[in-house]
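ok new one. same drill as before - structure tokens go in, u give me an amino acid for every spot. 98 of them this time. try not to just spam alanines like last time pls lmao
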């Protein structure tokens, strides 16, 4: 059935495993691979979730800063915002140009 789905030759005979030990080993290998795949998938999911939470926190912080700037702009007008910027620079926070 599967071979016809993937367009492989269907005349090929699929031999059964010779003994029970090989069948058990194949099952153990499959279970091990499934465990590793599941574990790594969960780790990836947790990392993505943590990254999403970090980005959401950063976006919220930037929104808060933007709201503060908008309030300052409304209170002082656009020219007042520039005066506020220069006042901070005169207070000792003047950055030297490179």
């Amino acid at each position: 059935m599967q071979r016809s789905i993937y367009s492989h030759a269907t005349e090929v005979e699929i031999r059964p495993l010779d003994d029970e030990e090989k069948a058990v080993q194949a099952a153990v290998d499959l279970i091990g691979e499934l465990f590793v795949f599941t574990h790594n998938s969960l780790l990836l999911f947790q990392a993505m979730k943590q990254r999403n939470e970090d980005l959401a926190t950063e976006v919220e912080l930037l929104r808060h800063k933007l709201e503060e700037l908008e309030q300052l702009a409304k209170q002082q007008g656009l020219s007042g915002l520039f005066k506020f910027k220069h006042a901070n620079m005169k207070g000792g926070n003047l950055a030297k140009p490179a």
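The two ends are 70 Å apart (CA to CA). and btw The mean pLDDT is 78.
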